[in-house]
Amino acid sequence: MRISVCIATHNGELYIFAQLQSILSQLCATDEVIISDDSSTDDTIKIVKSFADSRIKIFENNSFKSPVNNFENALKFANGEHIFLSDQDDIWLPDRVEKMLAQLKKSDLVVSDCKIVDSNLKEIEKDSFMSLYKSRQGFINNIYRNSYIGCCMAFNRKILNLALPFPANLPMHDWWIGLICEVFGKSVFMDEQLLLYRRHQGNVTNFIKNRDDSLLVKVWWRIIISYNLITRYSFERMRKLNINE
Known about the structure:
Radius of gyration: 17 Å
Strand content: 15-25%
Distance between the termini: 33 Å
Strand order of the largest sheet: 3-2-1-4-7-6-8-5
Order of helices and strands: EHEHEHEEHEHHEHHEHH
CATH topology: Spore Coat Polysaccharide Biosynthesis Protein SpsA, Chain A
Largest sheet: 8 strands, mixed
Structural class: alpha/beta
CATH class: Alpha Beta
Shape: globular
Number of strands: 8
Low-confidence stretches: 205-210
CATH superfamily: Spore Coat Polysaccharide Biosynthesis Protein SpsA, Chain A
Helix content: 40-55%
């Protein structure tokens, strides 16, 4: 299987149909879309099932109450060699998959740029996401400020296997996956805008990224994620040593 698209849904009935249309049109018959639903009380699952598409695999009746755990659940069921993360409310622009797969031939993880739009897909920022947030590679840069935005990311199975299982108390799933690649692989940031990134009041992951945490909480997050990276690195070193013995 070439591609697994992992989507964590929660009450996404307003946007999920358009998002799935934009994704499915770019996939092959052997690709898959993994949907992990976290306690939706609206018509999200009904809309997803209306596609009647065998490429869509739905895992419902979950009660994580957390987008981080919901994405981890979706990733656990991914079978593809290349994994794309997707929010429930964006739009993939044409040729996104083709262009990102081309980059994945020479890297382990790719982040594309995106246009920031409102709920009606009207552009609300003249600068792209990467320009606005000065996104870039580098371990220290991304410990200080995360540039790895999940909805713009794709990575190979090597990174998936290294990232799972998620440690407890992760602040953001995409931050963890991006830093895993900084430690174990090679990432590429594309200047091309391949996604319409919706910003609206219902954004769940956007709320996590932009909540007004105290300086102490932000420092604590970085201590947690650094500790878990050191632990994961040490585990992999020991595993390789045991294999080579």
